[in-house]
TrEMBL record:
It is found in: Plastid, Chloroplast. This is Protoporphyrinogen oxidase. Residues 65-524 form the Amine oxidase domain. It comes from Oryza glaberrima (African rice). The keyword Plastid applies.
Length: 536
């Protein structure tokens, strides 16, 4: 049970928040976020002349974190420097958005909130010159789940299992036996997260731990999410070892036989299981990469068409502030959302476009509020302070908000003294009606929920810092996701579109860390292709 719960909880903390389009609550005019065909940019250079033709070894379509990291990985790991990153919006970083009230002491995230400090992410940060700007959360910070009106701590290590009150003794015994393999066998079909967890670990683990974690990671419905696609590491434990514990033991044995290469001595060593960010927020990473790439990043470049060239490369046509620009590329990687890639690729392959159009992105809103410290219920304070990562709310507890991150407790300098900063998520695949709510209605829903378990019912109204709605927030890794992704890749291959790659969070995973790891994987594939094929 500890292996499964810890692995899936880690995915939650690493994922941080869904990518959301931000809006300042002080703005009177209500706006809704819209994903544009991303092609990205960042640093100043002489503008391209109308009708200009540009060439590159690789064009990265999309200037979010996946695209920027792919370009940097090509340069730092593979020596491929002839890269162009194009972004349709006017700023790089995609949905990473850090907001600040200068002079008031507030700093908050309105897209992803943090990341798990894996070595690939730390490498990207160090290569971007941000080693000294890294900040790490307290590895002992508790995480809470709302159950029967009380915020209950989640076990963070095996030693916590006998003592935490989120589960009953029979529920713990059922989970332990199931993890050892005393449970029904796999059904021989792709299982949902709910089916897998109920079968292996029992109803209590699912209802009180995994269901709220699915809300935190995907804002999704665990009865529809694919265990294999959404939580592949845990799924593989049973698949390779016959049970979760058996798979864990086998994984440890395999690591002993195949030790990792020496760790990069430049990388900092986080203390324990934690999450990380940067001194001035997550936006420091895309900004730093953009600065290093310089004129290779193009903002406000909207891709209008892509065609296969006679010389095995690709011709891309962009609408830019300077006019129409044509780009000739030996390779292309699409790191934009799948539904945007579907529209662009349809003239090349209707089969690939159809497969990409299947992926579902539900709406999510991020509501950032601040209360005075005395507004926190006394029973929720630890040593007189609000401590912890945050809290999650199972759908069965009749609370609309998916979860709350204790931003001012997680990282330093997020709120002024005497104030707490809370980032709340609401919506997801089980509550799509949020797109029809006003900003004030979203704030009222969050405040009403918080007063049920965290905030004193008679506390003053919160200071509203931001309300952001993303109509298409997080790709859902539903049953069949991996098959649809493979169908899209296969269709491109059968169509003769070698050198055209798919990337981004619907490919690599929704956590920020997985996007970075996926960028390194994409960069390796692109480099191999350029080496083996492009120059023959």
């Amino acid at each position: 049970m500890a292996a499964a719960a810890a692995a899936m909880a880690t995915a939650t903390s690493a994922t941080a928040a869904p990518p959301l389009r931000i809006r300042d609550a002080a703005r009177r005019n209500r706006r809704r976020g819209h994903v544009r065909c991303a092609v990205a940019s960042g640093a100043a250079e002489a503008p391209a002349a109308p009708g200009a033709r540009v060439s590159a070894d690789c064009v990265v379509v999309g200037g979010g974190i996946s695209g920027l990291c792919t370009a940097q990985a090509l340069a730092t790991k593979h020596g491929v420097g002839d890269v162009l990153v194009t972004e349709a919006r006017a700023r790089p970083g995609g949905n990473i958005t850090t907001a600040e009230r200068a002079g008031e002491g507030y700093l908050w995230e309105e897209g992803p909130n943090s990341f798990q400090p894996s070595d690939p992410v730390l490498t990207m940060a160090v290569d971007s010159g941000l080693k000294d700007d890294l900040v790490f959360g307290d590895p002992n910070a508790p995480r809470f789940v709302l159950w029967e009106g009380k915020l209950r701590p989640v076990p963070s290590k095996p030693g916590d299992l006998p003592f935490f009150d989120l589960m009953s003794i029979p529920g713990k015994l059922r989970a332990g036996l199931g993890a050892l393999g005393v449970r029904p066998p796999p059904p021989g079909r792709e299982e949902s997260v709910e089916d897998f967890v109920r079968r292996n670990l029992g109803a209590e683990v699912f209802e009180r731990l995994i269901e709220p974690f699915c809300s935190g990671v995907y804002a999704g419905d665990p009865s529809k999410l694919s265990m294999k696609a959404a939580f592949g590491k845990v799924w593989r434990l049973e698949d390779t070892g016959g049970s979760i514990i058996g798979g864990t033991i086998k994984t440890i044995q395999e690591r002993g036989k195949n030790p990792k290469p020496p760790r990069d001595p430049r990388l900092p060593t986080p203390k324990g299981q934690t999450v990380a960010s940067f001194r001035k927020g997550l936006t420091m990473l895309p900004d730093a990469i953009t600065s290093r790439l310089g004129s290779k990043v193009k903002l406000s470049w909207k891709l209008t068409s892509i065609t296969k060239s006679d010389n095995k490369g690709y011709a891309l046509v962009y609408e830019t502030p300077e006019g129409v620009v044509s780009v000739q590329a030996k390779t292309v990687v699409m790191t934009i959302p799948s539904y945007v890639a579907s529209d662009i690729l349809r003239p090349l392959s209707s089969d690939a476009a159809d497969a990409l159009s299947i992926f579902y992105y539900p709406p999510v809103a991020a509501v950032t509020v601040s209360y005075p410290k005395e507004a926190i219920r006394k029973e929720c304070l630890i040593d007189g302070e609000l401590q912890g990562f945050g809290q999650l709310h199972p759908r069965s507890q009749r609370v609309e908000t998916l979860g709350t991150i204790y931003s001012s407790s997680l990282f330093p300098n997020r709120a002024p003294a005497g104030r707490v900063l809370l980032l709340n998520y609401i919506g997801g695949s089980t509550n799509t009606g949020i797109v029809s709510k006003t900003e004030s209605e979203l704030v009222e829903a969050v405040d009403r929920d918080l007063r049920k378990m965290l905030i004193n019912p008679r506390a003053v109204d919160p200071l509203v810092l931001g309300v952001r709605v993303w109509p298409q927030a997080i790709p859902q890794f539903l049953i069949g996701h991996l098959d649809h992704l493979e169908a899209a890749k296969s269709a491109l291959g059968k169509g003769g579109y070698d050198g055209l790659f798919l990337g981004g969070n619907y490919v690599a995973g929704v956590a920020l860390g997985r996007c970075v790891e996926g960028a390194y994987e994409s960069a390796s594939q692109i480099s191999d292709y350029l080496t083996k094929y492009a120059y023959k």
